[in-house]
Amino acid sequence: MKTFVFGIDGATFRLIEKWKEKLPNFNKLLRSSVVGDLKSTTPPHTALAWPSLLTGVNPGKHGIFQFWKPQIANYGQEYYQSSDIRYKTIDQLFNEQGKKAGMVNIPMTHPPESIDGFRITWPLFNTLNYTYPKNLGKDLLFNKVGFPNDLVTMYKGEDNYDEKAKKYLSNRSKSLEYLYKNYEWDLFFCVITEIDRISHNYWRYMEDKEQLESKKNAVFDVYKEVDNIIGDIIKNLDSNTIFAIVSDHGFIASKSNFYIHKFLIDNNYMKIDNSHDNEGNGWYLDRVDWGSTKAYMPAPGCYGLNINLKGRQDHGIVSRNEFDQLCEEICELLMRVKDDNNNNIFKAVLPNEVVYLGEESNQAPDLILIPNSYELMVHHSIGTNELFGIPDQSGFHDMDGILILNGPMFKEGIITDCFAVEDFLPTILYALNLEIPNDIDGRIIEHIFKDNFLKNSVPKYGYSSKKKNNYTLSSTYSKEDKKNIEDQLKVLGYL
Ligand SMILES: [Zn+2]
Q1: DSSP of 193-251, one letter per residue?
Q2: Residue 468: its pLDDT value, please?
Q3: How far apart are CA 51 and CA 145, in angstroms?
Q4: pLDDT of residue 57
Q5: Contact 287/84 with Cβ under 8 angstroms?
Q6: For residue 148, what pLDDT is reported?
Q7: pLDDT in the model for residue 462
Q8: Ligand 1: centre distance to CA 46 (Å)
Q9: Residues of the chain with pLDDT > 90: what percent?
């Protein structure tokens, strides 16, 4: 039995439900599948959530907390790569049980690792080395379908991105079709990212009454194009194939940025050294006066704070003895911050080992800030005069990703609200009667299975999926690679 997973970065039922009458393929699937929100990671972010979905473990085990590693002694930028994911991914688990896998365009899977099957990775800088086997890219080009890496097709601030996104999608659709028709696979897992980009940048036009009538349907049009692709894929699958649609997080209209460094400066936890103005490579932490700084946000979008700890950070000034007290002090102050309507902005501020469970949790930022709503971004900018500001992006990630699951063993047309990203992997392995690792966090969601399947199938738990060191790649990013990644993330609005 084959499994086809169609990943849609940032898809949300908030929009699909509203538009379902005009999205015939989604609509049909909603009536005939298991359907439910797929709870994302904390925070709901691409870099954490896809690895959780691929491994069945929380970030405290897989060890990915952003595009950048938060615990870097010199406050600089170090990017995660595929080998940093500490648990085996779904394709590796399939391979170990004699099944072939194809993984296409999935965030955090670069550089390519060798598998029994194929991979097109998701590099953050320009490179031609993003496929396994190496000649896969050439084969696609030779057959006039190609697969430009995802940053080539990313939003770069252009006015006509909405038009481009539809073209990219129709090209992607041809490439995917070529791959699933011409390559062997038991698992085909692809991700498309255009819905995430259009939602970040065009959400505002959906409700915009006066200006830019022409952009009003931009987000819908991209959903519509995705609906067409889904229709094409389904036509090509036999009824015995498991077909799943998943997203890593949902989306919500943005409301405000909370400038955490302004908060830290106002409360004497941070100082800026303006004499460094023209030095450094533009990384936002370059101007910090570390000798007078007790706390800082270690990576954009991480919703976290680090304590500038002696012996851990290069210029740490906080001793181990002071650590807990300082964390408590900062938590208390943050929990009192209110927005314009006099509402608290944070639901909780928690130590990393409370939010994440596992041996990597101390590699997360020391404190995790959980807003009452992800309409609020904890922003990394340094040097703002205000504590709050209007975001550039009109859509932000939210906790509710999507799950649509279809296959002969699943009940039809049922709605479930108990899925989290970690539950996807064990549920799929169980559906296929494959062995399930015994050290993952996700659970099999049993009530979505037909009764006779449950009766006849005993879950096979067995082995550990924690990677041994021999999975680690020795290569690291070069200085030039890092510069390229930074340029790309700036364009995407992450920096
Ligand atoms: Zn995402």
Answers
A1: -HHHHHHHHHHHHHH-SSS-GGGTTHHHHHHHHHHHHHHHHHHTS-TTSEEEEE-S-EE
A2: 85
A3: 28
A4: 98
A5: no
A6: 87
A7: 87
A8: 4
A9: 83
Q: In the chain, what are the domain boundaries?
A: 3-253+396-492, 256-389
Closest CA to 8 of 22, 21, 25, 32: 25
Q: Are 61 and 358 in contact (CB under 8 A)?
A: yes
For the chain, report the end-to-end CA distance as a whole number of angstroms.
43
Give distance in angstroms: CA of 53 to centre of ligand 1: 12
Whether pLDDT at 277 is above 60: no
pTM: 0.94
Longest dimension (CA), the chain: 71
Residue 403 Cα to ligand 1 middle (Å):
14
Dihedral over alpha carbons 168, 243, 42, 198 (to 10 degrees) = 20
CATH hierarchy code of domain 256-389 = 3.30.1360
At residue 43, the pLDDT reads 98
What is the number of alpha carbons within 13 Å of residue 405 lying toward its C-beta?
25
Amino acid at 322: E
Of 47-61, 335-349, 394-408, 481-495, least confident by mean pLDDT is 481-495
Per-residue model confidence (pLDDT) at position 473: 45
DSSP secondary structure of 33-94: SEEEEEE--SS--HHHHHHHHHHSS-HHHH---SSB-S--TTS---B--GGG--B--HHHHH
Distance of CA 317 from the midpoint of ligand 1 (Å): 36
Q: How far does residue 338's CA lie from ligand 1's centre (Å)?
A: 28
Tell me how far the alpha carbon of residue 275 lies from the centroid of ligand 1, in angstroms: 37
Rounded CA separation 201/212 (Å): 14
If DSSP codes are grouped into helix, strand and coil, which group holds residue 119? Answer: strand
Buried b (16+ CB within 10 A) or exposed e, 351-381: bbeebbebebbebbbbbbbebeebbbbbbbe
Opening angle at CA 203, ends 202 and 209, nearest 5: 95
Per-residue pLDDT band at 280 (split at 50, 70, 90): low
CA of 401 to the centre of ligand 1 (A): 9
Mean pLDDT of the chain: 93
Cα-to-centroid distance, 54 and ligand 1 (Å)? 14
Top-level CATH class of 3-253+396-492?
A: alpha beta
Residue 480 has pLDDT above 70, yes or no: no
In DSSP terms, 418 is beta-bridged to none
Q: Residue 377 is which amino acid? A: M
How far, in Å, is the centroid of ligand 1 from the Cα of 201? 14
